[in-house]
Amino acid sequence: MPAATAATGATGSVQAVTRALDLLRILAETPGGIGLSPAARKAGLAASTAHRLLNTLAARGWASFDAPHNLWRVGPEAFITGQAFDPARHLAAAALPVMQRLMERSGETVNLAIRADDRMLYLAQVECAEMMRAFARPGARVPMISTGVGKALLAAGSRPLPVQATGTGSEGLAAELAAIAARGWALDDEEQSIGLRCVAAAISPPRGLQPIAALSISGPTARISDDRLDALGRMVVDAAADIGRTL
User: Fold this and answer.
1) What is the distance between the alpha carbons of residues 20 and 23, in angstroms, rounded to a whole number?
2) How many CB atoms neighbour CB 210 within 10 A?
3) What are the φ and ψ backbone dihedral angles of 30, each rounded to 5 degrees?
4) pLDDT tens digits, residue range 36-80?
């Protein structure tokens, strides 16, 4: 290949990366979502070029498309990959002291999770001292609609809705999410694992961003009984608010 052609190819590759990063920055600056045309205009790109780049980002998880509203947003990979940069670990650093206090107050295991596409990714856990306790190891991924942390995020306005929440039976889920939003906490009542319950609340992010993280108390049904649900719900809501204020 002639030197000039090689240089042109390299320059073209760098230009594509630069344009994609510009689009990613624009998505980050518009947490409520942005349409294709405004995103292309802000990036100084043709709509067709912006669409191609956004689809590439979405295929890798760096962007996500809210089809019902025709809006593009930052994808979960941006958060997950960003954890390699120390300042981005602020969420876990802020949460762990609060999680420790919540574990001591509730006597149950406490978990921190974030959204990753249509699933929840567990980031951290503080185990209780009980012989029988719930386990959701950091790095584990679980469905949103069958977990307390996932339902708490959806009720708090996390979008788009996962695929599982838009098919048959979605009316029942919508009613459940409305009830969660009204009381402030969600319940996984043996939906993810038989014999285990989870009470969870969304963590309010800074600067009005979409909620992406949630906190939960989990344990066996023998200890997380019906008469404890309200008290545990208030505990996890208060703890999630503490983390949000720290952020």
Assistant:
1) 5
2) 16
3) -130, 75
4) 999 999 999 999 999 999 999 999 999 999 999 999 999 988 877
What does the block give as tokens for 67? 């089809």
Please tell me the distance from the alpha carbon of residue 73 to that of residue 33, in angstroms, as a whole number: 5
Tokens 């023998």: give the residue: 222
Neighbouring residues of 58: CB distance < 8 A, sequence distance ≥ 6: 64, 65, 72, 75
Residue 19 CB coordination number (10 Å): 17
Q: What is the pTM of this model?
A: 0.67
Rounded-to-integer distance, Cα 13 and Cα 40, Å: 19
Cα(23)–Cα(16) distance, integer angstroms: 11
Q: Within 13 Å of residue 203, how many CA atoms lie on the same side as its CB? A: 27
Length of the chain: 247
Q: Who contacts 230 (Cβ-Cβ below 8 Å, separation ≥6)?
A: none
Q: Which of 154, 152, 121, 117 is nearest to 136 (CA)?
A: 121
Span 193-232, pLDDT tens digits:
999 999 999 998 766 677 889 999 999 999 999 999 999 9
